[in-house]
Design goal:
399 residues, alpha+beta, 4-stranded mixed beta sheet, 20 helices, binds protoporphyrin IX containing FE
Length: 399
Amino acid sequence: MEVLAALGTPEGRADPYPYYARLHEHGEAIRPAPGVVIVVGYDAISAVLRDPAFRAGDETTWDKSFPGWQSEPVLVQAADWMLNTSGPKHARIRSLIARAFTARRVAGLQPAIEKMADALLDRMADRGADGSPVEFMHDFAFLLPVTVICELLGIPEADREGFRPIARDLAGVFEFSDPVALPAINAAAVDLLAYFTGLTAQRRAEPRDDLVSDLLAITDAADGKLTDAELLHNLTLLLVAGFETTTNLLGNGLQVILTQPAIGAAVRDGSVPAPAFVEEALRYDSPVQLTSRVGYEAKVGGVAVADGDDVTTVLGAGNRDPRRFAEPDMFNALRSDGGPLSFGGGAHFCIGAALARLEAGVAFPRLLHRFPRIAPAGEPVRRETFLLRGFDELPISVR
Ligand code: HEM
């Protein structure tokens, strides 16, 4: 209980890893209070995520935990997000969206991602040419993923600038605990829905080579298998899920390079391949620290789970499980025991994993080649969020 309480403090949020290490000493899972199970072991987390009987929390859960949720626009949308559905509804929505979100479409984005990354690096080079600090989170880590996801969906360039604050507000729903935050989250949800309603109307009339047009073609042909509302709601999910998570992968990965320059040098000279660096960055400091499921009568990591329990799988802890990873607290991009849990597992495995890996795999080598003397230029500022782990500010010098 003491360790769990410490995880909620500013120190715990800043660096949860020593606390996770203490939880690992207790075993793979713990039951700190009736109705709550916290899973920290790699194998146990993996087993929960792969077991369809552990459902994602959905509208039936919210009926109990948040009566009246139907009057909150964000929750009406979130009820259709594939993230918050299970069984046949999840399979139906996910399979239709996966038909458009193909490996080919993702791979086809590579030239555009390279161009966007280079344009952002040019701007950073200009800003930092006189030796003044450049803010990596704002100038690169936020802008690259939001531009990429807009490019993927087919959101015109002129409309993109406005998306960052809206997507950020909407991402607040992932950490939602404070009702005070709800009006801003709802406002963002309403704005995005109105935007996608307009965009889908345009693409229906005049299809283009983008994900929204593909999705419309598939859903219209599938004849009611995905309702218009379900499609629109999952477009807002793609925008919000694909943005801040990747931002944090870029920030957390860069912080490793800034604090352990030999690792950056190894990526620059190619002795550590960029994809290996990215996998280890995902493991070492997971951008998504946890997710949860609704329990059923089962045993997890030796702990009994009851029907309806809130089962929290701490992906960030599983990634540092000493039972699974040799020297878990060491960043070793060439480790042979890779396989982070950072994209989840099972039916809800991140649909954007290949895109996130591609973006980071393009970004890091370009950044390191462009700025061989990249170095910290001030104190990093962490975001206060726990589920989404990352920085607000990461000042660097690039000269
Ligand atoms: C480093 C970047 C990313 C990380 C760490 C990440 C992490 C995750 C995790 C852990 C899950 C599973 C949640 C669960 O099981 O409850 C997930 C699901 C999901 N992710 Fe990602 N994600 C990233 C990037 C993206 C991108 C780029 C997109 C879209 C373009 C995306 C879209 C989604 C969607 C739609 C789901 C729900 C899938 C489902 O429920 O079937 N993510 N992601």
